[in-house]
Amino acid sequence: MTDLTLFQQKIAASLSDIELRFDEPMSKHTSFRIGGGAEVMVFPKNTQELAKILKTSALLDCNCAILGAGTNVLAPDDGLRGLVICLKDCLDGMEQLDETHIRVSAGVTMARAAVFAANLGLSGLEFAHGIPGTVGGGVYMNAGAYGGEICQVAETVEVMDLNGNLSERTCEQMKFSYRHSILEDEGGIVTGVVFRLEKGDCETIREKMKELIGKRTASQPLDLPSAGSAFKRPVGGYAAALIDQAGLKGYQVGGAAISTKHAGFAVNLGGATAEDVKRLLRDVSDRVYDHSGIRIEPEIRIW
Ligand SMILES: Cc1cc2nc3c(=O)[nH]c(=O)nc-3n(C[C@H](O)[C@H](O)[C@H](O)COP(=O)(O)OP(=O)(O)OC[C@H]3O[C@@H](n4cnc5c(N)ncnc54)[C@H](O)[C@@H]3O)c2cc1C
User: Fold this and answer.
1) What's the rounded Cα separation, in Å, for the pair 101 and 194?
2) CB 192 within 8 A of CB 50
3) What pLDDT was estimated at residue 89?
4) CB distance 190 to 139 below 8 Å
5) For the residues 124-136, what does the mean pLDDT come to?
6) C-beta separation of 126 from 200 below 8 A
7) 116, 119, 163, 291 — which has fewest CB within 10 A?
8) CA angle centred on 210, ends 209 and 213, rounded to 5°
9) Which residues approach ligand 1 with their CB closer than 6 A?
10) Average pLDDT over residues 257-280
11) Domains of the chain, with CATH numbers?
C-alpha cells in the first residue's frame, strides 16, 4: 500500500468489496485512445455498489466522474484526480416487460440493446445500433442518428442522485433536447431506461440496422480512433459542411486531425494528446467562424 496515495488507500479500505483499479490509463477506456491515469477507477456491478461508491465519494468529498464506453469523452493527458466510475458492462441486464416495452441497464451498449430489441421483433432502436456508446451515455446526451433520437423511445429513465437515491423520471422530466438532457445541468446517473418500441418484423428491423451500418462505414473514419462528431450541429447548417467549405479536411495539430473522409470527425492519427485535440477544435471553430460567421461548439465532452 506504500505506493498508493492517501486517497487511494482510503478508497481501498472503504470499498474493499468492489472492483477498483489505481492509476488506470483513461486511454484504455476512451474511443479516442487518449488520457492519463485515473487516480481510482471503480467498476460497480449493481446499483447497490454504485450507491455505496457515491456515499463514500461524498464522505471523502472527492471529484467523481461517470464514464460509459468513453466514446464521447476527451480525457486530460495528465490524468484525473479522484474517482472515475466506469459503468460499461458493469450495470448490465436487459428484459422484456410486455409486448412493446424493454428495460435496459445503463452499462449495456446501444448495439446490444438494439440487437435485443430486433430479436424480439421490436422496432425503434435501429438508429442506435451503430452508436458505439452505452445506453446510459446515450440517455445522458440524447444520442441520435439518421432521424432517430433516444428521446423518441425512452419512456422512463431510472436515475441515481449523487447521494445514492434512485428515482424514476418520465421522458418529459428528462427535458431532452438536441444532444442534451437535464442531467447535464442537474447531475445524476442513469442506471436504466425503459424503451417504448413498436411491434415489427425481425428481418425488416435487421435489414434497417444493416443499411445504417453500411452508411456509417461508407462515410465515417471508423478505422481511426475518434469520439464521433466533434462539433454540435449549429443552427442553420451542418458542422461537417462548414468545416469542409473552410478547407479544413485533413487539418492537423500534432497527432490529431480533421478526418479526410468526414470533416465532422476529429481523429487520432497516432500519439495525439488531449492538448492536440483541444487546439485542433479551437482552431477549427475559429477558422469556420472567420469563413462563415457561424460559431461551432464541440460535441465531445472535454474533461
Ligand atoms: C465512431 C463514433 C460514432 C458516433 N456516432 C454517434 C452518432 O451517430 N450519434 C450520437 O449521438 N453519438 C455518436 N457518437 C458519440 C457517442 O457514441 C455517443 O455520444 C454516446 O451516447 C456516448 O455514450 P458513452 O457510453 O460512450 O458515454 P461516455 O463517452 O462514456 O460519456 C459521455 C458523457 O455522458 C456521461 N455519462 C455516461 N454514462 C452516464 C450515465 N450512465 N449516467 C449519467 N451520465 C453518463 C459522461 O459523464 C460524459 O459526460 C459516436 C462516437 C464514435 C466514436
Assistant:
1) 7
2) no
3) 84
4) yes
5) 98
6) no
7) 163
8) 85
9) 31, 65-73, 87, 106, 131-134, 136-138, 140-141, 143-145, 183, 189-190, 220, 222, 226-228, 301
10) 98
11) 6-86 (3.30.43.10), 94-209 (3.30.465.10), 221-302 (3.90.78.10)
Atom 36 in ligand 1: residue holding the nearest Cα: 137
Can you tell me the mean pLDDT for 110-137? 98
186-213 tens-digit pLDDT = 999 999 999 999 999 999 999 999 999 9
**Phi (first) and psi of residue 19, to 5 degrees:** -65, 125
Q: What angle do CA 60, 61, 65 make, to 5 degrees?
A: 105
229: nearest Cα among 135, 301, 139: 301
pLDDT band, residue 3 (cuts 50/70/90): confident
Is residue 284 a contact partner of residue 251, using CB atoms and an 8 Å limit?
yes
Per-residue model confidence (pLDDT) at position 294: 95
Q: Which atom in ligand 1 lies closest to the alpha carbon of residue 67?
A: 30
In angstroms, rounded to a whole number, what is the distance separating the alpha carbons of residues 16 and 151?
Answer: 38
The grid coordinates of residue 237 equal 447548417
Q: Are 229 and 178 in contact (CB under 8 A)?
A: no
Is-contact 215 119, C-beta < 8 A?
no
* Cell numbers found for residue 30: 476512451
Cβ contacts of residue 98 below 8 Å, gap of 6+?
none
Which amino acid does the sequence have at 230? A
